[in-house]
């Protein structure tokens, strides 16, 4: 009985699918390792990974149609692997492209638009960052109001000292990179968070203060990206998670 040979369509599908997946993965880490700039990663590397994955998907489909005409060829498992992997790449690229369209092009989010907490300790760490720590104009403030109406000051019916302690304890639940300063006298906590894949760094400042409205205390948070016009909702999500952790204390 003649031994069946591996279909070239199935083999090429898997090879290209693996290539596309590796290219997608390295698009971010290559930026972190200074292999290329951010523009190159988004304009060339990621689209290239999607194109290669699309070709791999097409080859897997070609194999599925051609296998009946080639009884001496095998490769169903290989083709399925190529199909699944290529769909994973296309799904990932499509997901992030979709996400980018859902959020406004702002990268500085705060619970107090009128008087945002100010950075001090982290300023030297972001000296080379394209984005500065200036909050922005009223237009950007209005964009935040429309996009994130739930990002508001947290009022607590507890004394200032207890509120600051709760703010510090909540930090322990945050997967942030480093707490730069926590000054109970001024009520200011500053930290930064480094995201995986592309390694983007965002800075966070937390301000604990007394509240005249309820004779208790209040906590404001501000999260700012060092690079990028938009943030795909990351800063708002970070603030929500932190305030949720404070409430649980």
Automatic annotation (TrEMBL):
Keywords associated with the record: Membrane, Transmembrane, Transmembrane helix
InterPro entries associated with the record: DUF1499 (IPR010865)
PROSITE patterns with a match to the protein in the record: PROKAR_LIPOPROTEIN
Residue intervals passing through the bilayer: 44-66, 78-98
Name of the protein: Uncharacterized conserved protein, DUF1499 family
Source organism per UniProt: Fodinibius sediminis
Lineage: Bacteria, Pseudomonadati, Balneolota, Balneolia, Balneolales
């Amino acid at each position: 009985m003649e031994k069946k040979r591996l279909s070239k369509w199935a083999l090429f599908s898997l090879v290209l699918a693996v290539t596309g997946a590796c290219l997608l993965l390295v698009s971010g880490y290559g930026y972190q390792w200074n292999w290329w700039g951010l523009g190159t990663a988004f304009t060339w590397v990621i689209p290239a990974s999607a194109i290669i994955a699309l070709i791999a998907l097409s080859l897997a489909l070609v194999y599925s149609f051609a296998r009946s005409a080639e009884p001496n060829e095998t490769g169903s498992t290989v083709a399925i692997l190529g199909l699944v992997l290529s769909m994973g790449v296309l799904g990932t690229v499509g997901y992030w492209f979709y996400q980018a369209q859902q959020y406004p092009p702002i990268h500085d989010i705060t619970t107090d638009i009128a008087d945002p907490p100010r950075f001090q300790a982290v300023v030297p760490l972001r000296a080379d960052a394209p984005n500065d720590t200036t909050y922005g104009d009223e237009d950007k403030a209005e964009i935040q109001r429309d996009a994130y109406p739930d990002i508001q000051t947290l009022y607590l019916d507890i004394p200032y000292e207890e509120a600051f302690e709760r703010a510090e304890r909540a930090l322990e639940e945050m997967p942030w990179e480093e707490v730069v300063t926590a000054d109970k006298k001024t009520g200011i906590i500053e930290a930064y968070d480094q995201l995986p894949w592309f390694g983007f760094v965002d800075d966070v400042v937390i301000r604990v203060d007394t509240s005249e409205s309820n004779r208790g205390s209040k906590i404001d948070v501000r999260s700012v990206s060092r690079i990028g016009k938009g943030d795909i909702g990351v800063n708002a999500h970070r603030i929500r998670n932190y305030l949720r952790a404070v409430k649980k204390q």
